[in-house]
Structures are given as C-alpha cells and as structure tokens.
DNA sequence: TAACATATGTTAGTTACGCTAACATTCTAG
DNA sequence: CTAGAATGTTAGCGTAACTAACATATGTTA
C-alpha cells in the first residue's frame, strides 16, 4: 500500500489522498497506539506535504474519526457472520457473537479503542456514536430471538443485552490492555467469554 | 491547591514540587483526558519552569505513571470498604464491590484509564501492572469466601473472579466513554452491575 | 479551444510542547 | 564555613499541528 502511494507520486495531485491518509493513519495507529501517531508521519507515508491533509480533514482529530468510523462497519460484519453460524436464538449464537467481538478487538485494538473511546465533545451534538447503533441492533435482535426461544422471563431486551455487552467489552479491554497478564497470564478469552456468557444466560433464565 | 503553589513561590526552591506536579497533572488529566494534558501546563499550575519536572521525573510518561499509581491504592480502599459493608461471602458483598469499582471509574475516569490502559512496553520488564495485583487479590478473597459459603462447584477461583471482573470493567468503560448514551441513555449502572453479577453467580452455582 | 472557477497540492512560517545543556541558587554534611 | 548534592532557571533544539499565500490540476461553459 505504501507502494501504491509512491508510484502515484509523479503527479502533482495525489488523487486518492483521503483514502491513502486513512490507510496510513490506520497503520500508524495500530503500530503506535491511538494517540501515538502523528499527522506528519501519515503524510510521509502517503508521500505528501504536511499541509495536504487539511484539504480533506478539518484537523488531526477528524482523520482519527475517519479511522474509527470504518471500525463499526467491520465489527458489524464480523458479529453478524458469527451469529449466522449458529441457530437463531441459540446460546451458541450469542456466545459466537461475543467471541467475534473480542476477536475484533484483539485484531484491531487501536481502532477498537477509538470507536468506543471517542471524546463526546468532539462529536456533533445530539447524535453521539450514531454509528454504533446498527452494531448494537445486531445484538438486540439476537437477544430477542434467544428470549423467545428460551422462554426466559425478562422485562426488557436491554436487561439481557447490556450485561452481555459489558462482559465482552470488559473482556476485550482487559485483553488488549494486557491487564490479564499480571493476575491471570495466558487467559483463554474464548473460553472466558463462553463461560461468562453461558452462566449469565443460565442465571437469567432459570 | 493552586493557592498553596502560588503562596510558596517566593522561594527559589519549590520544596514540594513532586507532589505539586502529580496534583496538577491529576487535575489536568481529569479535565482534558489522559492524553490531552501537557507537562508545560502542569508546570504553569505548579508555578515553575518547564524544565523543573525533569529533576523529579524522567519524562512526561513518568509523571503520568505516578498519577496512575495513586489510583490502585484508592481503588483497593474503596472496594475493600464496600466488601466489608456486607457479610463475608455473600452475593451482596460481591455486588457492592462491583458497584464500588464502577463508582471509582466514574469519579476518576482519566485515572482509571491510565491505570488499566498503560502501554506495556513503558513498564519495567517482568512486573507489568504489579500494583494491580493486591487490588485483584481483594476480589479473589471475596470470591473464595462466596464459593465456600454458596457451595458452588467451580474448579478455580479465577473461573468466577475473571468473569466478574469483565462485567464491572466493561460497565465502567462503557459508562465513562459514554457509550451507553447512544443505545441505552440513562442506564442505571448500579442496577446493571447488580443484575449482571447476581445472574452470573446464580448461573455458576445452580 | 480559451478562460474561469474550483479542487487539491506546495512552501514558509507561527506556536506549543518535550526535552537537554549550561548555569544559578539553596540545602546539608563534615 | 565550605564543598557538593539537590533543585531550580534560562536558552535552545527538534518535531508536530495548523494557517496563509501561492501553484497546479480539473472540469465547465462560452
């Protein structure tokens, strides 16, 4: 991908600079952490001057936002794919979604942190994290199916969905921040998600 | 606290600069987020030149580390206090610890993120996040007591403790990052912790 | 096709910050 | 009292974010 940038650079106009910058930022953020990347370095990767990005992004934060935005699409695809590998409404289906959530965080730790850690006052007022909603809807649908199938008595879908979210979100964060290493090195997060989720669902339904 | 700094500044030597800088950094980090604080601004708050911190801290990161280190002590105090308000080994005791964990994160969001989000290669090799261990021990002890009291059949304490940790850690992160706002605004995290934890323990033991 | 408007790039310069070096002041032992 | 350690200061370097003024490409219209 750096090759594509270099080979384009006989022209004065880059042509695909916006995409190239998002790509470069993505690489750098994954390499040096969410805050440890510089706009200048992304410019070097893309082969343009440090002023060029401002034709496409308001500021450094806007580029970071663009990288984060991509993530929600990926996360949704992966959780939907996991869900569909098992019978609708089954515990296995929900467990698979949880594993996929954690696996996504493990594969894209920096993007994951950006997606969920965006500073709220950076966001346009009133529609904070709007991209997350369709993602969450995937979980809500799966939980609804499970409630129906299992016959569990719950007042609201959220009473099941939110705890499930906290379990996988917490697992994801503890994993990518290496916080398991100090107290439980070598933790198998797939197994962890499986047992946590299954136990919770059992406790809710029984 | 800014007053104390100002009133000291007739002297050439500050005298309490290390503490004053940690204090200033703590304020600024809470105000502008973990990465949005500058050493220079902390110096202004403490009333010293921008070179002064280097007599007490190796670099900017070391000051941030110092702020984070404080946090583990506070977290331990708060979870222990919560635990001791209920009978040893009771579900209530564990729930109270969970609520205290989330409350701490809500009160000190930036410190919380620093504590658990420290970059591993910044840490001295081999003893990463060592300060977290006694904190985790509080949970382990409580879980052991619960296992004994409830007669639940579990192979390892960790099989209970880690899921509990993920639940409260995930809740804490989703809360302080305002991720509930988009999909479940006004979420009562105390109630959420209560229900998640209780359901999980029920599912494990039954 | 010529000419203008717009989009997209460049260079140069400002400001802020992290950090270092060299120097100044204070504290503390002997 | 005095030497040296501790703890400040000022000056300056390098880098990054951002802006302004200018240059080049693109595309629309007469």
Summarize this entry quickly.
With 206 residues, chain A is mostly helical. The first copy, chain A, is 68% helix and 0% strand.
Provide the descriptors you would attach to this structure in a database record.
homodimer, mainly alpha, 68% helix, DNA-binding
List strands and helices in order, with pairings.
The structure is a homodimer of 206-residue chains.
Chain A: H1 2-8, H2 17-32, H3 39-46, H4 60-83, H5 91-107, H6 109-117, H7 132-150, H8 158-176, H9 180-183, H10 189-205
Chain A binds a DNA duplex (30 and 30 nucleotides) through residues 11-15, 17, 38-41, 48-52, 54-56, 59-60.
Structure in words:
Two copies of one chain form a homodimer. The first copy, chain A, is mainly α and 206 residues long. In chain A, 68% of the residues lie in helices and 0% in strands. Chain A has ten helices and no strands. The first copy, chain A, has helices at 2-8, 17-32, 39-46, 60-83, 91-107, 109-117, 132-150, 158-176, 180-183, 189-205. In chain A, helix 2 packs across helix 4 and helix 4 packs across helix 6. The longest helix of chain A is centred in the middle third of the chain and has 24 residues, at 60-83. The radius of gyration of chain A is 20 Å and the shape is elongated. The model of chain A is unreliable at 1-9 and 123-128 (pLDDT under 50). Chains A and B meet through helix 7, helix 8, helix 9 and helix 10 of A and helix 7, helix 8, helix 9 and helix 10 of B. The structure holds a DNA duplex (30 and 30 nucleotides).
């Amino acid at each position: 991908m750096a090759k594509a940038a270099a080979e384009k650079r006989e022209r004065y106009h880059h042509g695909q600079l916006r995409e190239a910058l998002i790509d470069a930022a993505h690489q750098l953020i994954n390499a040096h952490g969410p805050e440890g990347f510089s706009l200048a370095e992304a410019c070097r990767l893309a082969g343009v001057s440090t002023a060029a990005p401002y034709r496409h992004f308001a500021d450094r934060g806007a580029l970071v936002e663009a990288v984060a935005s991509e993530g929600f699409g990926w996360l949704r695809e992966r959780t939907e794919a996991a869900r569909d590998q098992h019978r609708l409404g089954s515990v296995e289906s929900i467990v698979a979604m949880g594993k996929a959530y954690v696996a996504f965080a493990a594969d894209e730790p920096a993007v994951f942190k950006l997606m969920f850690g965006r500073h709220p006052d950076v966001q346009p007022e009133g529609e904070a994290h709007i991209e997350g909603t369709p993602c969450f809807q995937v979980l809500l649908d799966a939980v609804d199916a499970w409630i129906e199938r299992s016959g569990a008595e719950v007042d609201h879908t959220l009473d099941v969905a939110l705890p499930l979210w906290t379990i996988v979100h917490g697992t994801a964060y503890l994993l990518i921040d290496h916080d398991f290493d100090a107290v439980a090195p070598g933790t198998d997060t797939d197994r962890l998600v499986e047992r946590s989720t299954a136990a919770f669902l059992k406790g809710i339904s029984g």
